[in-house]
UniProtKB/TrEMBL annotation:
PANTHER family: XANTHINE-URACIL / VITAMIN C PERMEASE FAMILY MEMBER. It is found in: Membrane. InterPro entries: NCS2. It is a multi-pass membrane protein. One of its GO terms (molecular function) is transmembrane transporter activity. The chain crosses the membrane at residues 22-44, 165-187, 193-213, 225-241. This is Nucleobase-ascorbate transporter 6.
Length: 331
């Protein structure tokens, strides 16, 4: 994918846009075909079962066991149950998803060459994400809805930021969810292919976050301390929580209330959450009485985007289709 997206468009004089926009499809097709050839030729017969499960294209009988047509419907796994303690744990998990989704929203706007997202637009996106989680619970998906951060990297690779592409992709996802054989076919793609692509996608996402530091004063010792300390703590604390859980079978917080354990162990096992929390605390408590601190923080660059109506381009970038702005106005 690196060759298709970064090198070939600059080497070849024709078809530059094709290689960039379809680099993911080319990569998946080539490596998937290679894995298929290895599978039918018997290259995986004498290897470990874990390797076979990851690399074979016929693993787990996905295609054979999938139905031709399967229409999901609400409460197909039984009536919903309610547990107050588990609700608190899920609220904390949803809060972590909100933090990551907000970062993905900002990164997507950056790679789509849009203006900075107004807070009301972020709130609108989080609200629709909440509705998605509610629908997930009705259909028993066993997981909530969150922004797929890797899709931001896909946006950066393809340079395609059209809403129409997202709408068509959603249609394909519905199609593959109903026609089980087709969905199972794509589920048979070996996992190392996704792992390799994520190396590129998440690199773009991380680089986008670092690019926002250009608006801070990186010559300030205050800024350097906040950056360095939050990065280090954001890596160290989750590593401690994860290693503790892998050795002991439970997190460092281990009381009789499992929901309380999850409320503490889950967020502090998440690197972006811990790093963001530490950076937010330090940035809002250190030397705020000094007049130069506001410019060091870079906040003055975003003042004109605090309101939806302050920038004329907000309508172009963030208005809803089908004239839905009348029902969901932005401020």
């Amino acid at each position: 994918m690196v060759a298709f997206s970064q090198y070939l468009p600059h080497v070849l004089h024709s078809g530059k846009g094709v290689f960039g926009r379809f680099s993911v499809l080319f990569t998946v097709s080539i490596v998937w075909l290679y894995a298929y050839i290895l599978t039918i030729s018997g290259a995986y017969k004498n290897v470990k079962l874990k390797t076979q499960a990851h690399c074979r294209v016929d693993r787990s009988g996905l295609i054979g066991g999938a139905p031709w047509i399967s229409v999901p419907y609400p409460f197909q796994w039984g009536a919903p149950t309610f547990d107050a303690g588990e609700c608190f744990a899920m609220m904390m998990t949803s809060f972590i998803a909100i933090v990551e989704s907000t970062g993905a929203f900002i990164a997507a706007s950056r790679y789509a060459s849009a203006t900075m997202i107004p807070p009301s637009i972020v709130s609108r996106g989080i609200g629709w994400q909440g509705i998605g989680i509610l629908l997930d619970s009705f259909f028993g998906t066993a997981n909530g809805t969150s922004v797929a951060v890797e899709n931001v990297g896909l946006l950066a690779v393809t340079h395609v930021g059209s809403r129409r592409v997202v709408q068509i992709s959603a249609g394909f996802m519905i199609f593959f969810a109903v026609l089980g054989k087709f969905g199972a076919l794509f589920a048979s793609i070996p996992l190392p292919i996704f792992a390799g692509m994520y190396c590129v996608f998440f690199a773009y996402v991380g680089a986008c976050g670092l690019s926002f530091l250009q608006f801070c004063n990186l010559n300030s010792f205050r800024t350097k301390f906040i950056l360095g300390f939050s990065f280090f703590i954001g890596i160290s604390v989750p590593q401690y929580f994860n290693e503790y859980a892998s050795v002991s079978g439970h997190g460092p917080v281990h009381t009789g209330a499992r929901w309380f354990n999850d409320m503490i162990n889950v967020p502090f096992s998440n690197k972006p959450f811990v790093a963001g929390l530490v950076a937010y605390f330090l940035d809002n408590t250190m030397h705020l009485h000094q007049s130069a601190v506001r410019k060091d923080r870079g906040y003055h660059w975003w003042d004109k985007f605090r309101s939806f109506k302050k920038d004329a381009r907000s309508e172009e970038f963030y208005s809803l289709p089908f004239n839905l702005n009348k029902f969901f106005p932005s401020v």
